[in-house]
Specification:
Blueprint (H helix, E strand, L loop, with lengths): L5 E8 L4 E5 L4 E8 L6 E7 L3 H7 L15 E8 L5 E17 L3 E9 L7 E6 L5 H9 L6 E2 L13 E6 H9 L3 E4 L2 E4 L4 E3 L5 E3 L4 E8 L2 E7 L9 E5 L8 E14 L7 E8 L7 H6 L7 E5 L2 E5 L5 H13 L13 H4 L2 H4 L6 H21 L5 E5 L4 H5 L15 E6 L4 H12 L3 E5 L4 E7 L9
Parallel strand pairs: 9-12, 13-20, 14-17
Antiparallel strand pairs: 1-2, 1-5, 3-4, 3-18, 4-7, 5-6, 6-7, 8-10, 11-12, 15-16, 16-19, 17-18, 18-19, 20-21, 22-23, 23-25, 24-25
Helix pairs in contact: 2-3, 5-8
């Protein structure tokens, strides 16, 4: 899908009036938003405004910024599909705005924007023993006139003794929340490490905007995509890459940068670069990149409401689960380049029962791991999966099958190579899998599963 029809709107608020600039006037912007307030900033360039508008927007860094009566504020909105589908990209105070000539014809109005001031609000409060943390949070947050309260998440507990807070309001709130509070576009949020804001999860694929290859940087993942205007800090973002499936999964957004040119007359890029957190509690990301297969403890927050998500799967798994529930059979769609869903979820098992979401999620991870082996050792090799998920009842009908086989839980796949010898593939596979996960071979197939071998730690994978 190609993202078309980009639009934007810039609204500048002075003490006297509101100035609105819209497409098709050329606009270039570079916006950075993140968990750290001092890392959040924006730069907006507007081309060839009339002289009166340029004069109204003008803001002197050294004089006007010191006089609150001369402060100006700005809101940038942008999106695809016209003015009715725009998201708020940045909102804050103009630190500096000036115009200059660029090239033979263009006059550029450059607007440098910082977040709403949150560091000039002071609080001095003493809360009695028994005061709920959420009540104290609300009291202090009400002292911040430039923000609204968004999500408070799992802020539970109460003061056991009288407790005082004295200092910058934002910093004092962070003392209460353990440093988990941030401001994004004028919204005050508190989100714990195992929480994300409950909004729809964008799915970025090679076909709808994923650019290049995701790059891991320590505990973070950097992903470049076509301009994604709806992103907010602390939400989930799902990556589905056919080129690098080992990075597929859902991740918590901890920062991003929009670098865009929206113009009717000039060509330019519209790119979003997202910084994602590889958290051990996040869906998909846990097994793929942290080697932690423990599920649970992952929550979504919406205002003060918390919903616990016990099972978290990539959207592909949810779609297959719904398809099986609806039709009673697995779809002939790809899990990976070499493996189809109906090859590892077969009708004999479905005649007894339908797999759970957790089983399909396990099977998805096993297939991804097997695909990584194929791509690394035998690119282009074709395989025939001979067994994937088995219902417990179907498994009991097979002679010699382990009554507690990992196939029952979706953790195992048996396969046969079709254009390579079994011995050659097993020799490489045994080196890749041995000592980390379970694997063996018989006369006509290779068995592999993703459960941890006895005495081997998960991070050995």
């Amino acid at each position: 899908m190609i993202k078309k029809d980009p639009h934007y709107r810039v609204m500048v608020f002075t003490q006297e009036k509101t100035i609105e600039i819209r497409y098709p006037i050329t606009c270039k912007f570079n916006v950075q938003r993140g968990l750290m307030s001092n890392a959040t900033r924006g730069n907006i360039q507007l081309f060839n405004l009339d002289l009166s508008t340029r004069n109204e927007i003008y803001q002197d860094l050294y004089i006007d910024s010191l006089d609150r009566s001369k402060w100006k504020f700005v809101r940038l909105e942008a999106g695809y599909g016209g003015v009715d589908n725009m998201s708020k990209i940045f909102e804050g105070r103009i630190q500096q705005a000036y115009s200059y000539k660029s090239g033979p014809v263009d006059i550029v109005t450059d607007i440098q924007v910082i977040p709403y001031d949150i560091f000039d609000c002071q609080t001095s409060q003493t809360f009695a023993a028994g005061t709920l943390f959420k009540d104290a949070y609300q009291t202090m947050a009400n002292n911040m006139p430039n923000v609204v309260i968004g999500n408070t998440g799992a802020l539970e507990g109460q003061f056991l003794t009288p407790t005082s807070f004295d200092g910058n309001t934002f910093n004092e709130i962070n003392k209460l929340t353990g440093g988990h509070t941030f401001v994004d576009n004028g919204v005050l949020n508190t989100v714990m490490d195992n929480e994300v804001i409950d909004v729809p999860v964008p799915v970025i694929t090679d076909k709808n905007g994923l650019l290049g290859t995701p790059m891991r940087r320590g505990a973070n993942l950097d992903v470049q995509m076509l301009f994604e205007p709806s992103l907010i800090i602390a939400q989930l973002l799902e990556i589905k890459s056919a080129v690098s499936p080992n990075f597929n999964g859902q991740y918590k957004v901890i920062g991003f940068n929009h670098n865009c040119l929206i113009s009717k007359t000039q060509a330019g890029n519209r790119i979003t670069t997202a910084n994602l957190w590889i958290g051990p509690l996040l869906p998909g990301a846990d097994i793929n990149l942290t080697n932690n297969q423990t599920q649970g403890g992952f929550n979504k927050v919406k205002g003060s409401e918390i919903s616990t998500v016990l099972i978290n799967q990539p959207s592909a798994v949810r779609e297959v689960y719904q398809y099986i529930q609806r039709t009673g059979r697995a779809p002939h769609t790809k899990i990976t380049n070499n493996i189809y869903w109906d090859e590892v979820v077969k009708n004999p098992s479905l005649s007894y029962e339908k797999p759970s979401l957790q089983v399909l999620s396990n099977l998805y991870q096993a297939a991804q791991r097997l695909q990584i082996f194929i791509d690394s050792y035998f690119p282009g090799m074709r395989i025939t999966p001979t067994s994937g998920w088995r219902s417990r009842k179907y498994n009991s009908t097979l002679r010699g099958a382990d009554p507690n086989s990992e196939h029952i839980y979706g953790n195992a796949i048996d396969f046969t190579p079709t254009n390579k010898t079994l011995g050659a593939v097993w020799s490489a596979f045994n080196k890749y899998w041995r000592g980390r996960k379970k694997a063996y071979w018989s006369s006509n197939f290779i068995h592999c599963d993703t459960t941890i071998a006895r005495g081997v730690y998960a991070n050995d994978w």
